[in-house]
Amino acid sequence: MRDSVGSVRSVLLLGGRSEIGLAIVERLVREGAREVVLAARGGVSSTPDALTGLGAAVHSVDFDAGLPDTHTGTVAEAVALVGDLDVVVAAFGVLGEQSEYEADPAAAARAAAVNYTGHVSAGLAVAARLREQGHGTLVVLSSVAGVRVRRSNFVYGSAKAGLDGFAQGLADSLHGSGARVLVVRPGYVPTRMSAHVEPAPFPATPGQVADAVSSGLRSGATTVWAPRVLQPLFTGMRLMPRALWRRLGR
């Protein structure tokens, strides 16, 4: 439960090794969170020093985005460890190479399952718990790649487009329950996952994404962009003629 100054006590990170996810969790711990659950495939073997050094109790649970039948159990396990979940950060996914997906449709389908359907089952499991609690926020890491899908990464982008739409619908379904969803739309963020991708204009660091999330949680926003300049930029891109977009999206 949020305390008298609005800080959160407990955080669950789905995608416990995500650099962006960990940056968000660290920011929340700096602001007062004291119970953290890191959920990743096989669990997280080593606890980040940045979290324990700030006084947080850090727990680890198993989470596999590709096994939707286990997601309700993962949420229940986290609740058993820390009680009510004040913030849940859904930061799991894979990027991959578009050319490899086109050469291997089965690999493309597996990636899409992680990036979209894994979030559907996990998001619904989290929402059920938050609705039962009557409070809490699910933070969903979407992407500008889903705002208007480009030819150069349309497998990834289309999954993010689906995720973004799902998150908005889930937010509407929680309206009036005391629980809510915060959709995060970062641009290019240099991390291990994106190391093979050519840098794009207006990049953001994991810390800047964490700042945007923290601000959004405090203000009650439904959507945040990182950096903010991407919001008007992509508003215009949505209106761009398809022939021109096709040329730009190569």
From TrEMBL:
The keyword Oxidoreductase applies. PROSITE patterns: ADH_SHORT. It comes from the Bacteria. Keywords: Oxidoreductase. InterPro entries: NAD(P)-bd_dom_sf (IPR036291), Sc_DH/Rdtase_CS (IPR020904), SDR_fam (IPR002347). GO terms for molecular function: oxidoreductase activity. Belongs to the short-chain dehydrogenases/reductases (SDR) family. This is Decaprenylphospho-beta-D-erythro-pentofuranosid-2-ulose 2-reductase. The lineage of its organism: Bacteria, Bacillati, Actinomycetota, Actinomycetes, Streptosporangiales.
